Amino acid sequence: MPRIGIEVEIWHGAIANLVDVLGFCAAYVPGHPMNVSVDISISYMSTAKLHDELEITSRLLGRIGRYSGTIVILRNKTTGEIIAEGRQSFFSSRPIAKL
Length: 99
Fold this sequence. Notes:
By secondary structure, the protein is an alpha+beta fold.
């Protein structure tokens, strides 16, 4: 019986989970209450295979009073191709002082 080659791709749900967790990490301030995610937007540009090495960048875009926004970019480390880009906004129960 011939073997059928199956290429396994990283599912969109796994990418969404990475955007959610890493976006939260970028917005988190130690000693303050945890932020609540109020919006998440993910653009899927390409696919990633199971053994692809990814480069993930997560950063805080800004903070105004109780509102903050983050961006997470997943990129194929070998080709430089963007796999997905996610933006997330958070709301805090208390304003965070400027650092």
